[in-house]
Design goal:
4 helices
């Protein structure tokens, strides 16, 4: 399946979304002290908010979405730090916060046909990775 292009409206929706897991929330461009604590407690340099719901932003039935999230959980191989919700205007999707190398996290998101993911690192603002092209990190994974 070919990846559809992201519209400006969809890009804006990602930026307006609240990303939460285990009671810890963040938004694109913002740093979360609570999220920093979680990452440092697990000695994690990088993590990503990744979903398996609604591939390429096409709504799917809740049961299908839940099954795919279960498959993502299995694919994450025990690196799930938390589970939560991405909530925007009039919609919500469940996601996982997965620890690991950003390239591996992006691979998981591509595998589950996602347009984007949200990357976090201690002391840094959350950033959205659109299109999931290969990423260069400023610090070794």
């Amino acid at each position: 399946m070919r990846r559809p292009q992201l519209s400006p409206a969809l890009r804006a929706a990602y930026a307006r979304t609240d990303y939460e897991a285990g009671g810890i929330a963040t938004r694109i461009g913002r740093r979360s002290a609570d999220l920093d604590v979680l990452l440092r407690r697990h000695r994690v340099r990088h993590a990503g908010f990744v979903t398996a719901w609604n591939p390429f932003s096409r709504p799917m039935p809740r049961g299908w979405n839940e099954r795919m999230l279960g498959k993502l959980r299995e694919a994450a191989r025990g690196r799930v730090l938390g589970e939560g919700w991405g909530r925007g205007r009039g919609w919500a999707e469940r996601h996982l916060v997965i620890a690991g190398d950003p390239r591996w996290i992006a691979h998981l998101a591509r595998r589950f046909r996602q347009h984007a993911l949200v990357m976090v690192a201690p002391g840094q603002p959350a950033r959205i990775v659109l299109g999931l092209r290969p990423m260069v990190t400023s610090a070794p994974p």
